[in-house]
Amino acid sequence: MWRPDIPPPPGPLYSRLADAMERDVASGLLPAGSRLPPQRELAFALGLSIGTVTKAYAEAERRGLLVAQVGRGSFIRDASPDITIATSFDPAPFAPQAAPPAATIDLRCNVPPRVGLSRALERAVADLAATGHLESAVQYIQASGLRSVREAGAAWLARRYGLACDPADLIQCNGGQHAIALVLSSLCRPGDTVLCESATFYGARTAAEHLGLTLRGVAMDEEGLIPAALERAAAETRARVLFTLPTLQNPTTRTMSLSRRQDIARIARQHDLTIFEDDAYYTYADPADRPPPIATIAPERTVYLASISKGLCPGLRLAFVTLPPNVARERIMRGIRALGYCPPALGGMIFARWVADGTADALADAVQAETAVRLAMAHRVLGLAIDPPGAVRSPHVWVPLPPLAAQRTLNRALRAGVELTPPEACSVSRDADSGLRICLGAPDDHPALERALHIVRAAIRDPATSEATSIV
């Protein structure tokens, strides 16, 4: 049986296993037509999870290395070009050409739908140029960001998040991912444990792994973090930081009630936890009934992150962080200088212009309206396969599936031209909620999204995924 020598890191394990297959194909160790070992057998032989091997085979198939035949197995594809002998008349150039394969539809990337951004961007840059304000965009700025941008950020947080703050206390970051790395690197040291939901934002996992931190997953229910489970984890680990997404949690879309947020704040006080509240999706919740941010319940111990990328425009690369009094601001400033010296100016200046002239509100309202349409489409196509989101609008939905069924669904969708987030990407603990996150904002238009959702539905309903057939 083929037992590859898997290359060392960097890179995900499944990708390195596919690299090993590609290397052995190129060297002739795996000639065309070779039958690959069944995924379960190879996983056992290499001491890997079945999900890792399944994903590696799917990646190899995407690269054109193998072909899977139902009932027979997976075989190395013959990649040699067809050779034909020319004759006096070759009809091939005049024959109808097959249409190129449709582009892959991305349901992995959690971004807001694009609504009028290009024209708004053109107007903002033209206004900045006409008023002589573009000069700051080509200069270094102070590490916490331009005063005008922080003033716009404070106005935006008060208007859209219900969070009052002094502009002088805001820190401008280069998007939410930069903010997560900045805060975790400033609050923690390599080897520290950070508590989080048992399934959490993949970007937080990436940052923690890069910084040498250990994420400890805490069990969830339909409202998110379970207080008793958090209390046990805090006592067992003596962790100092809790990272949480209380509104439309990524990936599960669950939203904490007010009483749940109060419980989390109480436990954080008892165990002296600093709460790192990532509220990327707060603006999608209905203003009439959404609970307040945890930062308003426990302001003395909550670092609050508001991402402009997730609710308005990802390309601005803009987020704001507020700090509690007990967090040394200078440590964050040193982190900014170490990781990027200062935030970029242009995206923040465009945002400030949009806030001042009302464009930001108009764009955000259009994003919310379009998100509602796309969520309704997902409900119509996927039906009961979706867990009910924790808000009337959500840019992503959660399809609960057992791990193997989720991986098989992902592979079938990928073969049909739809990319999904790998099920293990968000998992932190073995008892984490298992399933697939479906992101609705990236497809260019409604027909593309609907086509992708039907492909996902068919992938879930495939008879081989017996665990999932009863929920659609």
From TrEMBL:
It comes from Gluconacetobacter takamatsuzukensis. SMART domains: HTH_GNTR. Gene3D superfamilies: Aspartate Aminotransferase, domain 1 (3.90.1150.10), Type I PLP-dependent aspartate aminotransferase-like (Major domain) (3.40.640.10), Winged helix-like DNA-binding domain superfamily/Winged helix DNA-binding domain (1.10.10.10). Residues 11-79 form the HTH gntR-type domain. This is PLP-dependent aminotransferase family protein. Keywords: Aminotransferase, DNA-binding, Pyridoxal phosphate, Transcription, Transcription regulation, Transferase. The keyword Transcription regulation applies. GO terms for molecular function: DNA binding; DNA-binding transcription factor activity; pyridoxal phosphate binding; transaminase activity. CDD domains: AAT_like, WHTH_GntR. It holds the Pfam family Aminotran_1_2. In the C-terminal section; belongs to the class-I pyridoxal-phosphate-dependent aminotransferase family.
